[in-house]
Inverse folding.
């Protein structure tokens, strides 16, 4: 497949996640851990909700908020990638994602569609947009571990 066709396919997947985000919504359950994060440089806001089972697996993940197409697509892709993963696996994925969008060579296979956001590294102003949901994930897990 020609490079331009491959780039176009990547753009289409990103636009699909942005236009039709997966796992978007709010869980009305006080037992679900909720965290809100924002990117003050562009106004993106995410509310992330995680349910971690007794065995340390993420059994439910939802997000809501508003943001640019990169921020929304990244959040959608992240929710699909981390669902049913252990907390440690999710944290490792967050680290891999962060390194990837900063232009480092990584094994991005576990990231699923989120690996398609590697091109963000060419646009430093968009890195914070792409990592917003992943940073919220890290903070949410950190807070839940403190409370356990």
């Amino acid at each position: 497949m020609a490079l331009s066709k491959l780039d176009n396919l990547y753009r289409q997947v990103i636009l699909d996640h942005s236009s039709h985000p997966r796992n978007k919504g709010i869980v009305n359950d006080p037992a679900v851990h909720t965290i809100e994060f924002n990117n003050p440089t562009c106004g993106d806001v995410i509310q992330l909700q995680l349910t971690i089972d007794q065995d340390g697996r993420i059994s439910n993940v939802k997000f809501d908020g508003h943001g640019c197409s990169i921020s929304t697509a990244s959040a959608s892709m992240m929710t699909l990638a981390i669902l049913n993963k252990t907390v440690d696996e999710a944290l490792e994925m967050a680290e891999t994602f962060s390194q990837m969008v900063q232009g480092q060579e990584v094994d991005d296979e576990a990231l699923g569609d989120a690996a398609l956001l590697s091109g963000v590294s060419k646009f430093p102003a968009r890195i914070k947009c792409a990592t917003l949901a992943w940073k919220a994930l890290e903070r949410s897990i950190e807070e839940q571990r403190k409370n356990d």
Summary: The chain has one domain: 3-147. The first helix runs from residue 3 to 19. Residues 3-147 form a domain with the Sufe protein. Chain: A fold (CATH 3.90.1010.10).
